[in-house]
Amino acid sequence: MTYANLVKEAKKAVKTVDAKTIKEHLAVEFDIEGKGEGAFYVEFSGNGVEVEPYEYYDHDFRVRTDAETALAILNGELDPEKAKAEGKFVVEGNVDRVSLLKDLLKNAEPEKKTKTTAKKPVPKKVAKKPATSKK
């Protein structure tokens, strides 16, 4: 996975977080090691969620991990507190805010898949001609 693809996938992962559920500002910097190496940040605010491919110097905390773990957390497939306890990532900064990240990601709506179906054409009704009588 390239760094550009990682940032794109991170944006996709958090786009369903409902801004109305965000009561506190939270900024998390992800420092990715290995494939997709680089830094990006996720910022939760009343205006929504932003993901940008930059370092965020005024972050609440920084996460050092690999791309797969970062995306699993952002997609809601991996509990950030559990991943931290298992050593899947290292947190630097205000570690108490990891639970807020978990809560914010929990409020994401699963992406709704829209099913497009083609409408079947309605056959036209053909009126029968009245029978004419021949004399």
Describe the structure.
The chain is of the alpha+beta class and 135 residues long. The chain has a single domain, classed as Nonspecific Lipid-transfer Protein, Chain A (2-Layer Sandwich), CATH 3.30.1050.10. It has four helices and five strands; from the N terminus they run H-E-E-E-E-H-H-E-H. It has helices at 3-14, 67-74, 80-85, 98-106; strands at 26-32, 38-45, 48-52, 61-65, 90-93. Strands 3-2-1-4-5 form a five-stranded mixed sheet. Strand 2 and strand 3 (48-52) form a beta hairpin. Helix 1 packs parallel to helix 2. It starts with a helix and ends in a 29-residue tail after the last helix.
Give the topology.
Layout: H1 3-14, E1 26-32, E2 38-45, E3 48-52, E4 61-65, H2 67-74, H3 80-85, E5 90-93, H4 98-106
Parallel strand pairs: 1-4
Antiparallel strand pairs: 1-2, 2-3, 4-5
Helix pairs in contact: 1-2
What's the gist of this structure?
Helix content is 26%, strand content 21%. The chain has 135 residues and is an alpha+beta fold.
